[in-house]
Amino acid sequence: MKITTQGPTPTDLVKSREYAATAPAGKPTRPQAAESAAPASQLSETSKLVSSAFEQMDSQEAVDLSKVQAIRQALQDGTLQLDEDVLINTIMDMHR
Question: What's this model's pTM, rounded to 2 decimal places?
């Protein structure tokens, strides 16, 4: 199996117009709040949780490129070992 970088990547498919701008480090930026946004004292719990989640995501690397390269190399070499039961259960959980 040959792995190429042609075509859209999953992250390209997920990006929306709101995330089109990128931060200097290449990370997507958070959408800007509307100018008529409610003051912080009126934000719902959900809004506070979402804001907290964005802050946590901003502080983390989006993808561990060294792991991606290691998996790519193992696939190319035919040496990637997977636990089939774990893989099957994970796929099933994603589709529930």
Answer: 0.33
